[in-house]
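Lecture notes, part 5. Sequence design as translation. It can be helpful to think of inverse folding as translation between two languages: the language of shapes and the language of residues. The source text, in structure tokens, appears below.
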């Protein structure tokens, strides 16, 4: 009876220690996030002040070369009300660009990740696919615009294709690298215990490669946004890239910078959302 009481007491103490450690870890992460936010503000605020001083106070930088905060504010007002600018309000422009980026990214991920896993898992598949991939890999996404127009016309299909190609390459390379970096003894141990090839892929290959897969997905998402402006050269009537093109023709620096800010905001927001998904899928890495 005394032994049982001591065991229960020890278990209670262990649970309390574990709970305290969990709380301490959670508090440390929250404090770390707050410190990062403070450092980010400490880096951004001086740049904003310097921008205001150089463009609005001392006029060291002329409005024709770089817009002042007031110019950007006026551009924001113009595109946010009435008919907006370049065919629509900012909400419509952001939605159109986000839709294209997400569709191109989804197709690239759905094709590139399985292809990279296959090439990493099978030497025969790599020998068959890799020569063609090595030929396509150096071609910049911009070079595909003429063919994209011929194949898909001037609609969204051509734009999605250009974004897809930009996002496809990082997804393949990192998925392939993730499989190749796996410890071979893990796969050998799974085979010794009677795991079938599908079970090895599901329970060893994919979980082991997930960190590199998500690294590739982040790079793919960033490539999608950096290719957006080029993709929207293909007969676009809406989108952030279209706003940038029209504003450059109108020599409208305030609108150019405002559209660039929105590209940065949406790219950062989507990357943050992907990071949340990554923490849920592979919590042991967070």
């Amino acid at each position: 009876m005394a032994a049982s009481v001591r065991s229960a007491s020890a278990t209670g103490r262990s649970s309390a220690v574990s709970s305290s450690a969990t709380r301490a870890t959670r508090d440390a992460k929250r404090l770390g996030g707050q410190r990062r936010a403070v450092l980010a503000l400490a880096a951004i605020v001086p740049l904003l002040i310097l921008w205001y001083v150089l463009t609005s106070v001392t006029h060291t930088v002329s409005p024709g070369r770089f817009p002042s905060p007031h110019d950007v504010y006026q551009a924001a007002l113009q595109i946010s009300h009435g008919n907006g600018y370049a065919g629509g309000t900012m909400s419509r422009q952001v939605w159109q660009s986000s839709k294209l980026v997400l569709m191109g990214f989804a197709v690239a991920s759905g094709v590139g990740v399985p292809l990279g896993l296959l090439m990493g898992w099978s030497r025969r598949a790599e020998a068959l696919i890799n020569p063609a991939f090595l030929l396509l890999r150096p071609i910049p996404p911009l070079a595909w615009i003429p063919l994209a127009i011929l194949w898909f016309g001037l609609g969204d299909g051509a734009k999605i294709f250009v974004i897809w190609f930009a996002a496809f390459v990082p997804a393949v390379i990192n998925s392939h690298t993730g499989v190749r970096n796996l410890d071979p003894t893990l796969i050998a141990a799974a085979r010794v215990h009677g795991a079938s090839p599908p079970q090895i892929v599901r329970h060893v290959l994919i979980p082991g490669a997930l960190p590199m897969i998500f690294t590739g997905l982040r790079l793919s998402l960033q490539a999608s946004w950096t290719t957006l402006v080029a993709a929207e050269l293909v007969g676009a009537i809406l989108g952030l890239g279209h706003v940038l093109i029209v504003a450059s023709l109108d020599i409208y620096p305030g609108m150019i910078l405002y559209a660039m800010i929105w590209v940065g905001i949406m790219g950062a927001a989507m990357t943050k959302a992907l990071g949340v998904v990554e923490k849920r899928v592979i919590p042991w890495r967070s």
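The translated text above is only one of many valid answers, since several sequences can fold into similar shapes. DSSP finds eleven helices and no strands in the chain.
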